[in-house]
Amino acid sequence: MxxxxxxxxxxxxxxxxxxxxxxxxxxxxxCDLGGGGGGGAAATPLLPRPIRIEVPxxxxxxxxxxxxxxxxxxxxxxxxAGKGGVANANSExxxxxxxxxxxxxxxxxxxxxxxxxxxxxxxxxxxxxxxVPPLRMMPYGRHLSERQIGDLADYVLSLYxxxxxxxxxxxEPAKGTAPRKTGARP
Amino acid sequence: xxxxxxxxxxxxGFVFALGVGAYSSERYTDQPFPFSHAAHxxxxxxxLCHQGARTGPRAGILDLVACTGCHAVPPGNxxxxxxxxxxxxxxxxxxxxxxxxxxxxxxxxxxxxxxxLAGLDCSSCHGDIAQRTTAPxxxxxxxxxxxxxxxHDHEKVTVDCTGCHR
Lengths: 186, 166
Prior knowledge:
The structure holds two protein chains of two kinds. Chain A is an all-alpha fold. Chain A is built from five helices and no strands.
């Protein structure tokens, strides 16, 4: 009887040790010693060295506008260097977002600045009974200063192809060449 | 015998409680709509939405009113509740994204100083979040004080306590 009692006491001690270990192990993830906001979230280790980014000082308005074009998400919709082509289902511009290279043919700088400032809250539908085109243009006047909007406009106007002279609208097309098409308005 | 049973029950209860605690510590932050960082950083800087990253201590995030500037319809397959929230945002009623990172109140950290003055890329502290295609529910990396110290040491920046602690 004494042996049995001693054996069960030993077993209990073992179990008690196991319980304590289990308690300690299970409590470890609960200890969020960091800044809070996400225990157990460290998916990747910190980089040993910081990654540097260049913050250039653009010299002129067009260069500053190009930086803004990249920074402000313009190329998300209008494509790299304003080439256009991003899908926007049922938009009046053929289901795609227009490019910006020919904007100079349809807008003065003042008109373009206003367009950038106010955005395009409603994109026209190709099919009036069809769905709303999912993308539109935000009013950049909310985020950017007047100078920044001016820089952005200068950059967009600079996208006009160099080989297309601006002042030849009244010129007679050379024999054998088709009349030039105008660019779509953004 | 009763004492031993009580001890057993207490022990099991203790372990269970700790388990529940550990489970709940794996907390996540629900977000109101789907979001892909990867789709946005393809053509925009992080500062487009996290505008404070270059101008102040907190990076912050624009609310859903800003999202409706470019998106005419809510993303994904929105529920009725999400559609209603989107409509409110379109009308100018701010609905926030939920914050992931929180610093202890005794720590001072300036995004502007690290991003603009030191020129650190966001991934230095935020890991691969720019490649994520789903709305973040947890920080991708947790920055501990030792990480700050290692980086400050490496960059020969002050490690004086009062530099970061209030």
